[in-house]
Amino acid sequence: MIYQYTKRYLKDTYKEPTENFQWKSLDTLRFLQHIQLRYSDEVLQKEIKEVKEAFKDFFEPIGTLLFRYTEEYGVRFKIFPYRVKPQESEHLERIIKIIKKNKKHIQVCYEGQENQIAILGKIRRDIDALMFDSKESVHKKELTKYAIKKALHLSEKDIVVELKRIYIVKIFDENAQEEIEKPLESTDTVKTHNGYAKENIEKSYNAIFKKADVKEFIQNALEKTFTDKLDFTHMSHDYYEKKSLKIIHAQMAQDLSYYSALENDYLCGIATYILRNHIYYIHEIITFKLLEEIYKKNQNATDFLLQFNGSIILQNGRKYKLPSLQDKNAQKISSAMITSTAFLYINLQNKIRTLKEKLKELDKKIITLEFASKENAQLESLYTQEKNIKYDIVCYEKDLSQKHEQIESVKEAITTVLMSRKKPLGTSNA
Predict the structure, then answer these.
(1) Helix (H, G, I), strand (E, B), or coil: what is residue 424?
(2) Are the C-beta atoms of residues 313 and 424 closer than 8 Å to each other?
(3) What is the pTM of this model?
(4) Residue pair 304/235 in contact by the 8 Å Cβ criterion
(5) Residue 117 is inside which H or E element, if any?
(6) Per-residue pLDDT tens digits for 321-354
(7) Closest Cα to residue 410, out of 278, 232, 233, 284?
(8) What is the pLDDT of residues 53-80, one digit of tens each?
(9) How far does the chain reach from its first CA to its final CA, in angstroms?
(10) What is the Cα–Cα distance from 83 to 77, expressed in whole angstroms?
């Protein structure tokens, strides 16, 4: 986890690595302060190799990294920019020969996909053996990818992706590219994931989220979209329908680069996998955001939601029926029901969260005084406060429980309708 946490910090803070980058003492201080928000000094010492790997992977596009960490000076490193371009490498011709001599280890139509080629383990191992003792200042991954393209006479638009044991070549397809530009539908589970086989994407997904929490990842990605491109203070219904899934998909693909050094094109495939396998949870988060905005008396958010009313609209000479906001019994949910549910649900959630934060602070004070074995009168007062707060939390949670059916019915109806799209009914000459 500390690897991803470090990589995310570097990406958020410095965006892209540059050859003239200088890491100063203030950078070290800011980085260590950030690390200490989640990890102790002992954990940092124990997991420093993961931190080093995160720095190494972040700066890999521009050079090799010499990394040092000490308690006295913190993080120090030096970047040695690559001096040799892949096409000028002394190893290029030998790598091309390895690929051409081992054609039986090249699998076309890999995993049944006509536009995929796999460079299998034997070739990978031979290339690694050739480059193992090389002192040449070249980006070894880019050199290998360049050699694969040359050996197989690929075009510049074709993409080579390095996985754990193999390389996968994705042949660029104009028709497939056009298909990717269309909105991703929640019911679409047949298409491949950005052109890559589902099996490979699934393996990469499992490797990334073996330690990381995928729901936390999704939540963080959506929070970023809410502050900009999916802002319910001004977003129109039509914009949401056309753009929302594309925006979420793009944000998740971008955030995946914090967790993996794989190419963006392949990360888009993983993002597609996440979108399709967690589509309901994604829309549950959007539902909660909408209820929050309605609680804040955001009129645009209220109007946006009430447009899901089952009415017939005319758009570009064609009639469409809008989805209808209704419960499991097909009963329409009124504006008053939505507003009252939003205020009840969000208000109680906020009260419980505030009280739990107070309880944490109170526990710290109690532990400190108990350790000191003094101020018994003050301790008794704190114990009383603690008891009262716990009682209030129980009462608010009971209120939530009593209204559970109403709240869940409204939340489910909103989530379902947010996943829907207007249905075409035919054309009109009007």
Answers:
(1) strand
(2) no
(3) 0.65
(4) yes
(5) strand 116-119
(6) 888 888 888 888 888 888 888 888 888 888 998 9
(7) 284
(8) 999 989 988 898 899 998 888 899 988 8
(9) 59
(10) 19
